[in-house]
Amino acid sequence: MHPRSKQIAFHDFEEGFIGSRIFKDNRWVKLAKIMPWDLIDSYYNEGLGGSQIGQPAISSRMAFAALFIQREKNLSQEETMAEIAENAHCQFFMGLPEFTNQAPFHASNLSRLQKRFSSEALAAINEAIIQAAKEDEDDEPPSSPSAGASSEGSETSEEPKNQGTLILDATCIPADIHYPTDVRLLHKAREQSEQIIDAMYPQTKLEKKPRTYRKNARKDFLRLARAKRPGRKAIRTAIRLQLQYLRRNLQYISEMSSQCTLSEKHTHLLTTIQTIYTQQLEMFELRKHSCEGRIVSVSQPWVRPIVRGKAAKATEFGAKVAASVEDGYVRCDHFSFDAFNEATSFQASIHAYHERHGCYPERVLVDKIYRNRDNLAFCKAHKIKMSGPALGR
Fold first, then answer.
1. ∠ at Cα 129 (324, 67), nearest 5°?
2. CB 322: neighbour CB atoms within 10 A?
3. Which of 66, 147, 324, 384 has CB 3.0 to 4.6 Å from 379, enough for a Cys bridge?
């Protein structure tokens, strides 16, 4: 029998071994090389405001790198900081001079740091990363289609020939919310209205706190939530009760608003709750399940239902994105929380390709929804090949 191999004790390693094991072919080391850190720093400093009061700000590289790691690995805030504390390559990507077993800052700062990068800033950073990655693929910078096109245009003064392939498609980015139901949404709105009443009451001169019947309201909600297969009548009864509880709370808030002032957070929350009540009351009275600008989450009122028509999920809740793929690199051409027809962003994506390369693509790979009369005429005028079935029956 072979002797059992023993695990080497941690103190038997050479001093500094863990901190020095950084490999050049690691993905985080490669990403650190092509990241436009100067551009990131310029956008990051715009959100600081130049204040000299308070705790020193987290560096732009550490902030953006932590957010990038979180999105790349799809981790929570706590898991992201734990991964950084355990991974030497992640710390190298963040610009730390040596390995440490502690997170560089608290996980709660991530939600604040992501607000300092706007969608326009992220688009510019993404474009800079793509250009740096293309230059890094070869020792010499590749000749772009615009360079060859300009030389040819100078001789013949004609429109440069179309080059390259562009792939266009749209997708939905699911938001982290519960599947929205009318009863659950009203229940959450009622609970938030009760918190607003609790915050307003100490500022008023009322002798007795308004009765919100929160225990009865919760029992009515749980009665439906615990039912395996509630019928339509039970669902409408639960919605009607939650509407009554919420209407009473909103009346109390309106009466107390003259005696006290709400914080900015509670003001925005109250506006969302009032909109939810108006929408749900309209749908309840008209017996319908949709309305314009429907709110599906109290904490994220900007999220909208996106009808996709897929087999697995007919409707998704989140942002809709029109993306373009070129040589394996993805760009976000259009981003909106409101539903839109992706065919409307087709020509804008083609014009963006022309601005980058100085010529139009030779062919475009798209779904059938892009093949409308305007887009087909646009492709014919610019000699772009867009394969697919002909219009009509």
1. 95
2. 23
3. 384
- Mean pLDDT over each residue of the chain, to the nearest integer: 85
- Identify the pLDDT of residue 12: 45
Coil/strand/helix, residue 148: helix
Contact 63, 35 (CB under 8 A): no
Contact between residue 164 and residue 357 where contact means Cβ atoms under 8 Å apart: yes
- Rounded distance, CA 305 to CA 318, Å? 7
DSSP E strands in 249-314: the ranges are 304-307
* Per-residue pLDDT at 139 exceeds 60: no
- β-strand partners of 151: none
Collapse the DSSP code of 363 into the 3-class scheme (helix H, G, I; strand E, B; otherwise coil) and give the result: strand
Give CA torsion, residues 179, 185, 188, 192, to 10 deg.
130
287 vs 9: which has the higher pLDDT: 287
Asked if 91 contacts 29 with a C-beta cutoff of 8 angstroms, the reply is no
Q: Is-contact 44 64, C-beta < 8 A?
A: yes
pLDDT for the residue 115: 86
**Does position 8 have pLDDT exceeding 90, yes or no?**
no
pLDDT, mean of residues 127-154: 62
Q: How far is CA 13 from the centre of its chain?
A: 43
Give me the phi and psi of 97, to 5 degrees please.
Answer: -75, -25
* Alpha carbon distance 366, 90 (integer Å): 37
Q: What pLDDT, in 10s, does the model give residues 174-232?
A: 888 888 899 999 999 999 999 999 999 998 888 899 999 999 999 999 999 999 999 99
